[in-house]
Every structure is written in structure tokens, then in C-alpha cells.
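Quick start: load a record and inspect it. Here is Amidohydrolase family protein:
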Amino acid sequence: MHDLVIRGGTVVDGTGAPARTADVAVADGRIAAVGSRSEVGAGRTEIDADGALVTPGWVDIHTHFDGQVTWDELLTPACWHGVTTVVTGNCGVGFAPCKPDERRRLIELMEGVEDIPGTALHEGMQWAWESFPEYLDFLATRPLVMDFGTQISHGPVRTYVMGERGARNEPATPADIAAMAAIVREAMEAGALGFTTSRTIMHRAIDGEPVPGTYAAEDELFGIGAALKAAGHGVFEVAPAGVAGEDDLAASREVAWMRRLAAAIGRPVAYGMTQSNASPDLYRELLAETQAAADAGAEVWMQVAGRATGLIFSLETTYHPLRGRPSFDALLPLPIAERVARLRDPAVRAAILSESAAKFSLLATFGDRIVPIGDEVDYEPAYEDSVAARAKREGRAPDAVLYDLMLERDGRRMFMIPILNYADGSLEPVREMLLHPRSVFGLGDAGAHCATISDASMTTTMLTHWARDRSRGDRLPLELAVKKMTADTSALYGLRDRGRIAPGLRADLNVIDLDRLRAHPPEVLYDLPGDCPRLIQRADGYVATAVAGRVTFREGEHTGELPGTLIRGRR
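Running the structure step on this input writes:
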């Protein structure tokens, strides 16, 4: 008698093998058998999966739950989208090691880089550590709905060792480098999954200063990388310069040193890769250079997204095209219902539309990309659906059209601006990236960019958009879409006990009604500590999610189970 049997589902096992109909049995948190009813036997709990997919749980390797994990046992919104394992500590920002008097600095760094409200972090975080091993020990005490692994980040390490010099990106001395390498080695031995650094000037603290380590010289990067070599495990992750379009020449230079680093330390080096508007064909050069590194034996990998990266906005979010106009900004202190009522006053409307934003104008820069979100979210919208195109058809000013649209749904109408990965109004570059053998799925940033994006749902749209619905180009095979989110992400981080459906592996599983699967439109909730807002999306179609064989969600609702554990590297 097994603990759980999932009956008659279409098993997509994560390996890329063709889907097949089978029962999946679970005992003691592990997959016990995969086969026919007679081969599998009975279960104390059984789930009828006839007509549904059975997949491994998603392994999301690019999240920013570093602070949220201390107060939210569910790690929303990732838990609503089939995720059973998360990895944090990305982009060179995190909260360990940290001296008590540096806590504010690290919070401001996370707030600036990842748009997580500082108020929420100040009010919500439970601090019970200074060193990185102490951080892991604290996390090991947390009841969680999913498994949690983390990396040690350059920003806190540099700040811990160098103080103000490190925070202000002064050059590291040989003694500084040795001290940082020792901390990273200690973290790896305690269970860190890797080390991360940021080199893009787009990542800045709330005071405008670049992330500590942004300008680190090679002696510092290679010195820290040597700690991973000595530990014998872990990923060296980079948010690189150049790939977001700030410096075209930097991107190739970045891949060159990462190739040399990977060869020197014998560990995977993974970098975030997107298509920029400034150099829309640069990504193809990087695909080729990454493949050349692999052909030469260097473990260089690309983390790629499953859709465009940009901005979600409404009257409730931090950024939108009407902000910066004095008559509009005067209404910001009002509750949303009162603000909408005032905005519907013809006199107020006329005053706002007569003004222009004092700063950077989203409407002027991205008007041809601003697309209203309907009841179903189209993640590959045509430019003919944009606000600018609509204004041209109607013979009206774009800001007037946008103003009226923003008042729909009682001021909660959402809009998207696809920017990166959408230079030509198509996701074909993303498809090329996802098909590349040296790419892994990531960059969803769950837990971060709370008032600007809602990409934690990217796991869901990997199936809905790429495997089922895409109409503006070729789709991806279902088996490949699942493999990208399970076996591939697990393998990069050495998590060999998950990511596939096979006897003996961890029973992290999803049962999915693909016909019903959908990500809801984004909405704003005020549920962070301090009543701070964030964008979230729920999902339909996840019949059940199990972690270590215990069903954690049924039809999107938490069952009360909290089987998640801390993942400690090679341990």
C-alpha cells in the first residue's frame, strides 16, 4: 500500500522522453513506481489524473525570496504556479553574511535592485544570523511549503569584508579577496548552492550606488571562484554587463572572462541573457560564443526567460505614464476609489492631459508597446493592439486614450510594456534561446520587482503559451517545455534527486489539466508586511501539487501541508 498513487495521467517525466500514460506511486516521500495499474498497486490516497498531465514539480532557480522566506511559509506567488523548489541569492544581492549594523544597507540594496519594498523588509524580516552558515541554520527551522536553496551573494560578502570600501566599489586588496574567498568557501561547505555577482549598471541600491562588486576586477572574481573549485560544487552565477543593452561591446567581453573562469575552476558559470532593443541581434552572437565555450569544454550556461521582460502597470503601481504630472501626483495620497472618482471629473482630466511628465516619459518612449491586458493575458501581443496604434486609428492623442483606458475596471485595468526579448514585436528570439542546448529556464524573479512585473507565473505560461497556444510562430514540444523547468534546472545546481519522474527520486509532482491551465491577469494586493503592495497572479488548472509526496495544493488552494526543507548543496 503506497502513500499516494496518481492514476492514469499522461506522464511527462522531465527527461524529454515522449509522454506516456502511467500510474505514479509514492512512498516515504519518494517515487516508488511508474507503470500500469497492476504494476503500481494501491495507495492510501489516490488522485484520478485521467486526461491530465503528471510532471515533476517546477525547479525555479532564479527567485528573490531571501527576505520573504523569513515571514511567508508559502512563498507566494510561486507556490500557485507548480513550483516545488526555489533557489535564491541571485544577482549578487542577499542578506548573509551581515553584521547587525549593516542590515539597513543590505535592505536598501535589495530594495533598489529588486524593487522589494524596504518597509516590508524592515517590518517583516526576522534576523537571527550574522554568518552565512547561521543564515542556513535559521532557514532550516522554517516550516515551508516547498524546498528552498540559496546562494551566497557578492554584495553582502563584499560589504561584510570591506565595509564602506566594499559598498562603494573600491578595488579589493589581496587580503580582501582572501577574506571573501574564505567566507564563500565556508558558505559552500555549509550548503550554499553557489555564488552570485552583478556587473550590470542597471542594478543599483536605493541611493543610486551600483551593487557592490559591479566593477570587480578579475583577480577578485577568480579568487572567489577558486572557493567553489575547492568546495567541489556550486554554480558561479552572473548578472552580466551589456546583455540588457547598456554596452554592446561589454557582452562579448563578459562571456570571454566567464569562459576562462569556468575552465579555471571547473564549475558551471551561468549568466542571465536577454535580447536588447539597442542591439536586437546581439543575442545570436552570445548564443554562438556560449556554444563555442561549451565545445571547448568550459561549463558556461545561459539563464533565459520564457517571455518578454518589461513593465506591468495600473493606477495602483509604482510606475505608469501619468505619474510626474503635477495634477495627477496631487491625487496619489487618495485611496484608489477616491482617486478614480476624481480622475473621472472632466476638469481634472483636462488639467492632467494639459501637463507633461517632468521626468522620463514611458508614453513617449514605449507608447507603441503599451498594451492593455484583458481577461486573458496575451504574452506575445501585436503592436496593432498598442495604445499608440489605437490612438492613431481613433484620431486621438495617445495620453487621452491611455487616460480613459486606465479608468476602466474601477481603475484596476492593467497594462504591459514588453521591452527586453521583444525588440521586433515577436518572441521568436526567446524560442531560439529556449531551444539552445546551453540554456536553462530562469529569470522569473519570483518575490522581486513587486510593483513592476509579475513573472513568477512564467512557469505556467511555459506550458500555456509555448506548448499549447502560440499562434504567431512555432510552439515548443510539451516534453521540452517541461524538461527546461525540471531536469535541466535541477541538473545545473546538482540537485540530482529531483526534476524527473523515476523510481527513487523525490516525489515533487504536478497534476495539471492542460486544457484549463491559465494564469490569471495580474492584480495588486496589499499583503506584504506594512501593507505594502505587490503584483501577483493566481492560476487555474493545477489539479494538485505534491512536495516529497505530500499534497500541498489542490486546485490552487493550500492543503495545510508544509513539507518543504532547506537544501544544503552536496549534503
